[in-house]
């Protein structure tokens, strides 16, 4: 699933693919914001980690969990 994270005062968004479910991502962001944690960590499908300061979070866009269809639909 694709995740896009907007960070305040930065022109580009952070975009990556992850194997985590949408509920896991929502829970991680909600927990970090509710506990007033300094940062939230995301892990992509290749194993790389991204640490984003919670004070700079503008938005988190969570893609769909469905796989993309290939070909034409009649």
From TrEMBL:
<dbReference type="InterPro" id="IPR021456">
    <property type="entry name" value="DUF3107"/>
</dbReference>
<protein>
    <submittedName>
        <fullName>DUF3107 domain-containing protein</fullName>
    </submittedName>
</protein>
<dbReference type="Pfam" id="PF11305">
    <property type="entry name" value="DUF3107"/>
</dbReference>
